[in-house]
Structures are given as C-alpha cells and as structure tokens.
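Input record (one chain):
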Amino acid sequence: MLSGTLQAMTVQLRLLFGLALATYYAAAQQMEDLRALRLKLSAGDLPSAESILEIHRGAKGEDAEYLMGLAWLARGAALTADWTAASTHAQRAFDLASGQLHSKADYDSRREAVYALGTALEVKAQVLVAAHQEKQALRSLEDALKAHAEAPFSLRARLWKRWNEIALVGKAAPAIQPEETLGAPFPGVEAWRGRPVVLFFWAEWCGDCKAQAAALQHVVDRYTPRGVHFAAPTRFYTPDHKAERQRVLEVWQKVYGAPSSVPVPFSDAGLLRYGASATPTFVLIDAKGVVRLYSPTRFTEERLAREIDKLLR
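The corresponding structure, as predicted from the sequence alone:
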C-alpha cells in the first residue's frame, strides 16, 4: 500500500517537474527573443531586430513579449534616427497597448502594456521634434498626461521626463513641495534664488544612484563652499512610509555619507513634475532660478563638475 502511494507521488512529482521545466524553457525562449532583438538594436541593426520580432509574431502571436518588442523597435528606430520606422512601430505599440488598458486593474496587471504605452507616447513626441514640431510634441505629451491621469506614477513621470527633455532647459525651475524632509531643512528651490542649485533625484534601492555616491560627495564638498546649494529629492515608493523612511536614512548615511548641508525632501509631486522616472536624474539651476541642465542619466565627477562650473561663470 505504502509502495503504491510512493510510486503515485513519484509520478506526480515527475509530472510537476516536467511542467515546471517546460514553463521555464518557454519563458526562457520568450526572453531570448527579446534579448536577441535588443542586442541587434544595440549594434544599430534595426532590420535584423524587426525580422526577429516578425518571426516571434508568426510563432507566438501578439503576446506580451511581442508588445515589448514593438516598444523596443520604436526606441531603436528613434536612436538610429529612422523616423519613419520609429513612427510606425510607436503607433503599432500604442494601438496594441491602448487596447489592453481600460481600468486601474489593467494598469496594475499589464506591466508590459504600460511600458509599451509609455514608450510609444515618448517616441511619437520624438518623431514630432525631429520634424521640427516641438509645440505639437509638447501638446501631445500634455494631452497624454490628461488622458492617463490615473495611470501609474512610472508612466506619467516618463511623459514629464520627455516633456522636460524637450522644453525645460531655459525655463524657471518647477517648485518642489516636500511631504517631509530628512537632514538639512529644504526651503524650496525658489528660496535659494541667487545661488546655483544642483538637484539629485534618486531612490534608495537604485544601483545607478549608488554608483554616483562618491562623485556626488566630492562635488558637494568642492562646491558648497563656493555657494552652490544641493538637494537630493526622493519619494515614497511603498505604502509603509515609516519603514521606507528608515531605509532611505540608512542608505543616505552608509552609501552617500549623509552630507550635512544636503536636504533629502520626499515629494511625490516633485519627482513627477521633474520626470524622475529614471534615477538618477540631475537638474542644474542657475542663480536666477532657470534650469540650465536636465539629464536623466549618470555623470562622471569630471563632467558633473564641468557643468556646475558653467553655473558659476
């Protein structure tokens, strides 16, 4: 009796293992298609990337991986300045993603569609900018922000990021109203008018942000005595603000050295308006309160110092 039970359990375990293995290999193959597509794009080979996605579609249909692939094709075409292809792929990604997002539950459950929609809207704006239609590009992004007002933060911040890349430099720096602040007081960028300001938008879990720690600390030590103000805005990414606040404090102290002159304001609205969907994001503001650099990227210490020097001339 026991032997028969063990034999049945063994068969069940083998079946379960086989199913898990088949699922793993199917997922790995999906990832392999997208990985291969991205490798071709990184080499500037858009036609081969398009071919990979065409074959994927024929074999597996317009699944989530296909939608992600469309978004990457749109990005890749924009990077190679193939604006006809960029427009085509962006529109296809937009149509497919929009058809999947009708409610808040859809935004929460269809991550690939959210990503593809954001990419499509960004690339469509880039296409307009390439055609010297900056006003239309900005209007398209503003319309999208209104249409997707209930979308996740990540999507809305991406739209503001693209808006900022097109038009923020040369304009007055948007205000940041913190919900709370760690470290030194943060009176707001407008209160610092008369002195240059460097904003370092970051997240405590962000690896690229942590890679900036040494460079940031060095420029803070170098330029604070010369009258430059620094702030490191972040936001709450989880509902448990108490636990997250403690993590932010620990990372700020252990990784960044917690420069005593640098406030860490928490501001959901501030990070949204500055389009900090990608962290780190650097914003440099001159003494008149005008944005002179907006860069959702990492910086070497040398390049960051060079940009700050421009504010002091």
